[in-house]
Amino acid sequence: MELSTPLILVNLKTYTESLGERAVKLAKIAAGVSKETGVCIGLVPQFTDIHRVASSTEVPLFAQHIDPVQPGRGTSAILAEAVIEAGAIGTLLNHSERQIRLVDLEASLVRATEVGLKTCICSNNQAVSSAAAALGPDFIAVEPPELIGTGIPVSKTKPEVVTATVETIRKINPKVIPLCGAGISTGEDVAAALQLGTYGVLLASGVTKAKDPEKVLMDMATHAAK
Amino acid sequence: MELSTPLILVNLKTYTESLGERAVKLAKIAAGVSKETGVCIGLVPQFTDIHRVASSTEVPLFAQHIDPVQPGRGTSAILAEAVIEAGAIGTLLNHSERQIRLVDLEASLVRATEVGLKTCICSNNQAVSSAAAALGPDFIAVEPPELIGTGIPVSKTKPEVVTATVETIRKINPKVIPLCGAGISTGEDVAAALQLGTYGVLLASGVTKAKDPEKVLMDMATHAAK
Amino acid sequence: MELSTPLILVNLKTYTESLGERAVKLAKIAAGVSKETGVCIGLVPQFTDIHRVASSTEVPLFAQHIDPVQPGRGTSAILAEAVIEAGAIGTLLNHSERQIRLVDLEASLVRATEVGLKTCICSNNQAVSSAAAALGPDFIAVEPPELIGTGIPVSKTKPEVVTATVETIRKINPKVIPLCGAGISTGEDVAAALQLGTYGVLLASGVTKAKDPEKVLMDMATHAAK
Amino acid sequence: MELSTPLILVNLKTYTESLGERAVKLAKIAAGVSKETGVCIGLVPQFTDIHRVASSTEVPLFAQHIDPVQPGRGTSAILAEAVIEAGAIGTLLNHSERQIRLVDLEASLVRATEVGLKTCICSNNQAVSSAAAALGPDFIAVEPPELIGTGIPVSKTKPEVVTATVETIRKINPKVIPLCGAGISTGEDVAAALQLGTYGVLLASGVTKAKDPEKVLMDMATHAAK
Description:
The structure is a homotetramer. The first copy, chain A, is α/β, with parallel strands linked by helices. The longest helix of chain A has 17 residues. At the C-D interface, helix 2 and helix 3 of C face helix 2 and helix 3 of D.
């Protein structure tokens, strides 16, 4: 369950293709590919599936979000302690589909650190990445929103966005590990992302909606392992 | 797992006292009291705990919230299908700690109905209850926000708010079942709530933070059964 | 500056075509058409333009939104008192481009009533209209969001949505005056809206982006006057 | 109307004491003090008052907020062009009473730059200030939220927060000018703020609710001028 780079992080979003028992199945596939290739593959299941998946596999799990709340009130809030308790080791923050206030982003990082969750801030461009880097998360995944879900890889279409972001992150806070998101669906896309200076990818439909997720993951992990 | 009235609905919020395995333990206590008294006791655990609790007991479970999204995109959204899949049979909506837009409330009711989730809209006053009733949920729980978490029962302090709300709901939509929330912590509070025309209670800290939750639940269920 | 029905309410949104001095000019045109036809034409300018327009014409003005705040803190909130002070006599609430929480909608109506502002809740469908009617605003404007800004009039394309909404509003609260929005751009659209049982229209681009707003307003007012 | 440092920026919030004609009066007082002392005093009126105040005085005005929208749709949004048109030369962003999403903060800075508005990001702590600095606004005002409106000056109570923030901002982006907010109500507070390395203050009730605003402003400006 240790995180390592290169990292392939698969966001299950709210896809029914990767819901409930199907999330467990995908996690087992990921575990197999990871074992065979030595490349770390993490999953980002729905909140309701974290414990179920964590109980069945050793795959590192991220939550899709946490809220900057303390235990107690806060009906429906995603508590950092609850995410850990369910078996996650990290969390996305500020995904393009759940963008949050700067003040909450900072407070969520504090909460994550308090409970020992790794953090991956999602960012839509270079400027936002620089602000995110100043906050000191573990990872920043840059994802131009117009490419999400398209299958058009940012690593190929907008390589300059990726390299500029990698450079910015390095300048502001060299401890932060840059990832590449948006449109990644093949091993080649992963290889391109790594060549641009990132240490992994954040993707979703490329795996969750694939006819043969194992084949896709194997292709990605193989390229990442090179 | 059938819902019936009088109903005691216990919101576990983000209390660590009722997180993870402690939610399972509380659910088993609730199941025991329910069996002994014949009074329906439901739990409203954190999202990450729904499946865990549902796998261990027969207690009816509500989610704390759902989002009006369709499966697919919507990272971190609470999908109606995911809540059902995890084992819940219903959901709170518009809790005072997660108040939502009118348009989303209406759309969430549609989504809940599509997947077969019961719905309980929380309301802070008579006017909001009338709007909620017009939308046709299964339950409306009226909770003056200034009393939440205080141990001061609305059924005793502001009985006129409860009776006026019950009357309003009946007038707008007689199919909607009124519940009474805020400050309920004893069997007497429950009895008072029922005498005011409601069919049950929504409560939280009165049970989750009780030294002996079983004793409190037994007291409440016994009063409700009379 | 008295409101009367049939009412033509023109939302200036954030169009630059109706910003600043151009809002004043449009208000003068509206005043002229209103005087000539006897049909009430109101404008809904940007907040920054309310005082400027109110100082120059007698046209009834609505704000685009108010917040349910009391005077004091609340930097950037739209204070009911400020809107009145600037010269508006009413406010939109819950426009499809600024949908608000049910609890805030109710509280904003209370605030509007406290200061004497007329209220027009915007609604996207029949169910939301029924909830809105239960809250007792002065007007409800039903606007299927998919038609907004299209020039495809709801009064022609989805007459059944309009009539069902009119009927629902009448049943829940007969004092509330139904208006028809979305896609209204000609006098015929206005006539169709009135024939379906509404007492006026809420529109935007049909006037603000018209080559000759006076001609369009005259066409609408003439049809409304029949 | 030129901005210069030291800068005293007075946020009128939604105080009725500084609404409408009273905002104009306060602006004239500020103009007088500014002229006499040579210290720049800016006002941050409600949106509805910007044009009114700008038409009557030469005092530099900031909006309390802008939204990252383009002209067009966006009913009730605060359009950058509208704020300029009304007579403002700058805008606050992310005030503690209107905290915004990181992505919107970045996009609002872009919009402000496009139309030529100066920007002042409000920040609640050092970490948020570092992220804000990375985005490159003109000013950052650090305001520990627990001190806002208390009359307890951050410059005296938490000088280390101010100096650490000033240092952080300088490191991340030396072009950004740090201001000091929260609890400033006397000339001494202003002097303390400047000694800690800031170039001015952002305050509200200390002036707007003062019995004699002119006296307070004169005290502040005199200390700032030293």
